[in-house]
Structures are given as structure tokens and as C-alpha cells.
Design brief:
alpha/beta
């Protein structure tokens, strides 16, 4: 994996306010590092070194926003060519978003992107669900590098605090369709671990706390939740348990 594991956001400037800005906002709220030109570039910077080398070429993840404006944007197409090379080499995971454009309407130079699972969205569909997918993938990759990758394996070790163990055992018994109960139990387990003797120095603690606080805030606002958010919380819980065991 590259040292720079943040998400590079590639888009045509015409799509900045309608789609790029909302995506950047949601990802930051999940604690995910992003490479976004407004946060990363200053007047006078060398575009090749900063935008293409430091951004498009160096990030482990690339969010590509495709629209009717993309093919007209020289900057976006240059970035996509670099991202494509890194993807072929297996160095970059790409997240394609088709924004108000059908897959068959993509320009010839962009047809290769259809080989990857993509998401179609329109102006009024929002970006929250897309960002949940991205956060799930990133936490899956983090968890893949952990020693213990499932709650059942973690509980089998009998090394978590007794109250955390009891809550997680109850969680695993609750019907999978009972999302609110399962999320509430994961949040309770999260609180028991964060108030225990656990290393707060881990970089991933920031992402985990952001994920939990964000989704619990959505529940408090009575927003709809789905299995993707439960999946995300479970990934974050497994990562948190690994941090606890290594503390």
C-alpha cells in the first residue's frame, strides 16, 4: 500500500459545487483523509508536482466523478490517465461515480471504467450513500491488515472487557434485520472500549470515532439507515477491538 492512503477526488471544475464539494464534506465527516484541490493546492504551486504527482499518482484511493463535463476537462482527463495506470498496476482502488450520465454515454476514452463497480447518481439523489460505500471499502482494507478480522474471532480470544464481550455477544444474537437494535449495541460496545484502557495514539482511533459519531447523529436525526452503515460500524468495531488488544 502507498504511504499516502487518502482519497484523491478527480472531477471537472463544472461539477465542483453540485457533487465534488458534498462528497468531500461527507468523507471528511467520516475522518477519511482526502486530496481535494481546494484543501491541497495554493496559488503558485507546481501543478505537475502537487496535483498529478502528490495527488493523482500517490493516493491509494481515487474517487472519479464522471459527467458530460469530464471529457471536456483537460485537467480531469490528465488525472484519469494517471489514475488508470496506477489502477492497472494494482496500486490504486478507484470509486467511479457517474453523475447525471448513463454508462453507455461515457466517452470512448472512459469506457474502461465500466469494468469497476460504479454508482450512478443524479443531482437530487445526494452523496451520503456513495460515501458509505467508500468508507466501507477503506475500513475493510484497514481490517484486512489487522490480526483478527471478525467479531466471532475476537470474542473467542476472551481478552476483551467483560461488559464489551457481553454486549457484542448480544449483538451477534439480534436478528440481522433489526438495524436500530444492532447499531445501538455496537455503539454501547464502542463506548465501553473507548472509556477503557486503550491506546488513543492510533491513527485509526480518529476514523473510528468519526464514523460512530456521524452515524449515531444520523440516527438521532431520524434519518434512514441501511445495512451498509451497520457493516461500516462493525468494521470499525473490529478495528477498535484490535487496537484494544494491542494496547
Amino acid at each position: 500500500m502507498k504511504e499516502n492512503s487518502c482519497v484523491f477526488i478527480c472531477f471537472a471544475s463544472e461539477d465542483r459545487h453540485t457533487i465534488a464539494e458534498p462528497v468531500a464534506h461527507h468523507l471528511k465527516n467520516y475522518g477519511i483523509d482526502i486530496w481535494y484541490d481546494r484543501y491541497s493546492l495554493l496559488l503558485g504551486d507546481n501543478r505537475f508536482e502537487k496535483n498529478l504527482k502528490e495527488g493523482a499518482e500517490s493516493c491509494s484511493y481515487a474517487l472519479i466523478i464522471l459527467s458530460e463535463n469530464t471529457i471536456k476537462s483537460k485537467c480531469a482527463m490528465e488525472e484519469i490517465e494517471i489514475i488508470k495506470k496506477e489502477y492497472i498496476l494494482g496500486k490504486t482502488t478507484i470509486f467511479p461515480i457517474l453523475y447525471e450520465i448513463a454508462p453507455d454515454d461515457l466517452a470512448f476514452d472512459l469506457q474502461w471504467i465500466k469494468k469497476v463497480i460504479f454508482k450512478e447518481i443524479v443531482r437530487n439523489s445526494g452523496t451520503r450513500e456513495v460515501c458509505n460505500h467508500i468508507a466501507c471499502k477503506i475500513t475493510e482494507d484497514i481490517l484486512y491488515a489487522c490480526e483478527h478480522q471478525s467479531l466471532k474471532d475476537l470474542l473467542h480470544l476472551n481478552r476483551l472487557p467483560n461488559v464489551t464481550t457481553a454486549i457484542l455477544k448480544t449483538y451477534l444474537k439480534v436478528d440481522a434485520s433489526n438495524l436500530n437494535s444492532r447499531i445501538s449495541l455496537l455503539y454501547a460496545a464502542y463506548l465501553t472500549l473507548t472509556y477503557s484502557k486503550i491506546s488513543k495514539e492510533s491513527y485509526y482511533m480518529h476514523i473510528i470515532s468519526k464514523i460512530y459519531n456521524r452515524i449515531i447523529s444520523e440516527i438521532n436525526l431520524n434519518l434512514d439507515i441501511d445495512y451498509r452503515e451497520l457493516w461500516l460500524l462493525e468494521n470499525a468495531m473490529c478495528i477498535l477491538c484490535n487496537i484494544y488488544l494491542s494496547s
